Amino acid sequence: MRKSIALATTALLGGALFQPAVAQVRTSDGAPSETMNDQQNVPEKFRAPPPSAPQAPGVNAANLPDNPEINAADIPPMVPQASANPAPADWPAYGRGDAQNRYSPLAQITPENVGKLQRVFVYHTGSKPAPGQQNKWAAETTPIKVGDSLYMCSALNDVMRIDAATGKEIWRHASGVKYQSIPYTAACKGVTYYTSSTVQEGQPCHNRIIASTLDMRLMEMDAETGKSCEAFGFGGQINLMQGMGESVPGFVSMTTPPPVINGIVVVNHEVLDGQRRWAPSGVIRGYDAETGKFVWAWDVNNPEDHHQPGPGKFYSRGTPNSWAAMTGDNELGLVYVPTGNSAGDYYSALRSDQENAVSSSVVALDVKTGSPRWVFQTVHKDVWDYDIGSQVTKFDYKAADGTVTPAMLVPTKRGQTFVLDRRTGKPLPEFPVEERAAPSPGPVQGDPRSATQPWSVAFPRLGFPPLKESDMWGMSPIDQLFCRIKYRQADYEGEFTPPRLHRPTIEYPGYNGGSDWGSMAYDPQSGIVIANWNNTPMYDQLLTREQAVKQGLMPVDAPGFNPSAGGAEGAGAMAETPFGVSVEPFWNRFTGMMCNKPPYGMIEAIDIKTKKVLWQRPLGTARANGPWGLPTGLPLNIGTPNNGGSVVTAGGLVFVAAATDNQIRAIDIKTGKDVWSDVLPGGGQANPMTYEVNGRQYVAIMAGGHHFMMTPVSDALVVYALPADSH
């Protein structure tokens, strides 16, 4: 799940680190009255269609034909790409280059002159909720920059080319995505720049933009003109719902830019959480970047079959999906896939051994075959929705003896950061991983929890110690008492407290804790990692099927689905399992304030060589936050929930928005202090980027807002630079 809790407070009370909690005694829950697959007593309108049911109208949005296959050996060698060795002035990939480290070598803007930054232009994408439409918008876009142009996508997947110095729109490619295809968020994090291996320079579609859509299409267009690349797929696009079986619009979607590795464009997708056990597959697929023809599939429960399903068949249902941005490795021929849970997030008894082996993991797939070369798992038998939302970052680690290891950073929602050898998936010796005892077997009969969980013991954890009752907080003594009562009413044994029936549990870190899709920024020159993270526990409880039915919880593909009863966030039907689930912030619902004391959002700098925290501080002020959703206007740096990441520059600055105070700020990387900020026209829930044109450095942030973060939605890309006469 990717819900972000838009909660903050008006004062920073007790920011010291918490102390460990004493484990509470666990009582035994009985199994529900119905068996795992028995839904005979469930009213028909609450049941999901069988997996073999036909796809609903609009799932194949462009009515595209089935895609033919091609052998990987027939794909021409890929020519060097702009992202392999980015020009200093450019930002040609989502995380800037193939390393995806969000580091720029530009140094014109410094802590000494950043106070002079001013808006140069604001570009409007035109994508906002229309009158009468429910606000599902959260653009989350990071533009890319190649040459003199920015390329970006709107929240509904229109693709635009913009003059990088003036903001003038050069072309727009309309995607045709309809409102009905929005899952729970209208988002497009970015697009991919690709140089063809078969089309000569100067010819149409030599340089291309690759974009994925919310309605599951993969599109290619000419970077110069924006016209469709007719030789790709069917008129410039292919249908990614082929082989997926029963679905409805919005159940499956793509929000991240697909990487191209050795000529193969690799696609993943998100599947709505909390719907049903046999949801559409989380299959990962590879396509020829030149023609769009299918190359391979990695289907978890059919690991030896890398072909597309034949007539009347489909990819295995309910398998872990991957919604985060992937990272490619051309030298090793790998794509690093961050995975989530199997469908039915809070109940694992129906998962196969293959699913349990790869969920909440990083899986390195061979880009020529689609077969895993290695798997590193961050949570065993995950029932806490600790899917990996962060893109992994590649870097070269130099050990004390001078040896260099091709490595990667793997951030997690747990706040654990794993440092792996990207050739093997094994932890670096300097960053060991221990298996530590976890609460087990758990109270749900037939669904035992893992006895141990992995801990990264050398890299500083992004988080605080376990909660205790004295950490409960409120706007008044009454509010605090309310939260203390909620704490006592719940089962809490620290991290990995198993979900249970008849009694709530506290999930801490919550599923929006630690690092999420904003990932980390890494300065390869200094070895400094910049990480922003959340401190937002959740309050969970399993529901009997009868309770779920009474609450109106049904999967999105069932007739009469009511999104106001529950959906991808909060309460979920988890149809075709014995349970539904209630998930909400651990908060005082009367004031809208979290029950744990602030800060709720943090940012810090870590030296990867010494493994020490250089500085740590709350991220986000109270200016746009307060009880009952009322902004206080106070500039107190109390730390708010945040979504989105940062960029670090050779000029000694960190640029970050992300927090719910609707500001972008520049932080001095040496001190951790703000040296500049600006109030945005909408929430800054996106990753910023920086680039240079004609000797002038620019900083850009999509201020699109976020409906779950409750920040103002806009369609504005805001771009800053120093005054023209000051550089």
From TrEMBL:
Keywords: Oxidoreductase, Signal. Its cofactor is pyrroloquinoline quinone. Residues 28-98, 424-451 are annotated as: Disordered. Gene3D superfamilies: Quinoprotein alcohol dehydrogenase-like superfamily. Residues 91-699 form the Pyrrolo-quinoline quinone repeat domain. GO terms for cellular component: membrane. Belongs to the bacterial PQQ dehydrogenase family. This is Glucose dehydrogenase. It comes from Acetobacter orleanensis. The lineage of its organism: Bacteria, Pseudomonadati, Pseudomonadota, Alphaproteobacteria, Acetobacterales. The gene is gcd.
